[in-house]
Amino acid sequence: MRSLHFVFPGDPNALTGGYIYDKRIIDGLRSSGRRVYRHLLPNGFPFPNARTLEESSRIIRRIPDDSLVVVDGLALAPLHQVIGEQAARLVLIGLIHHPLSEETGISAAQKSFLLTQEQRALAACAHIVVTSSTTASTLISDYDVTRHRLTVVEPGVDPAPLALGSCDDTLNLLCVATLTPRKGHELLLNALAPLQDYSWRMSCVGDLERDMATATRARQCARRLGFADRVVFHGVLGRSELAERYHSADLFVLASRYEGYGMALAEALACGLPIVATCVGAIPVTVPSNAGLLVRPDTSKALTFALKRFFTEPRLRERLRAGARASRVRRRSWDIAVRGMEKQVFGLFTK
Known about the structure:
Helix content is 42%, strand content 17%. It has 14 helices and 12 strands. The N and C termini lie close together (6 Å).
């Protein structure tokens, strides 16, 4: 059996969707008896400097011939040159959580640059794994990827107790998302501004240091709107603390401008939490129509209207809560995700 290697940059223990996915797949494969080698690249992706590129290229070149090598999409595009060079001796598999060129907050020039890099890197891969059918369709239509080279392996979700909700008349809102422009925290805060006469409070859980400028603007926005006593930015929480936030929430909210899957949404549904979010990327696939209200992106008025309905229509709240609870039985486990990766992807290249 070919040796199996995972290549990705940064901190493997970071609590973001992509890193959690990588870690759970690797841990699952190891638990099933597969020997998996993990190669950590330096920080700096997706815009690495020359030194980072050279060191990362050396790491890939040292992987033994004929190995199965999964390269996380955060590093795949910037490493397109070495990916092309090594394609003849390695079985390269691209793992795309969402295309880098779909990121919010980058310039048109950066978007075009990343698109070209991704197309070149993907062309050199023997196979490509994506985490949603939406991303698969995007790669086919915009990145010149043929369907037979694509496999969808959706993330799993751990079982969770039903959310209890608030213990008083104030609705608890929960947003779990790293503070970056794509996640739309300021848009969400502005959508809540006209709703100050209603009884609600919000917990924002997510990395405050990855994009400090965005985090600063979001906190300043909350203060400017007079939300000092209503909105709390917790930063990154451990799994048990985060589970407590889900358990005490009444509604999960997300104003994202793009999602390749939306693992936090799946975790909310696993707790039976209804959702108000934007209708972008894979969110309509992840969130059943009877479990959430999905609105156009970058439109605070539409988001305000959806939130107001949730605040003021008890029957709607109960209907969405029932839909979210019903969806729990359809959530796939991480064991299923791991088996899918093993059989549907690695099985194609097993000797």
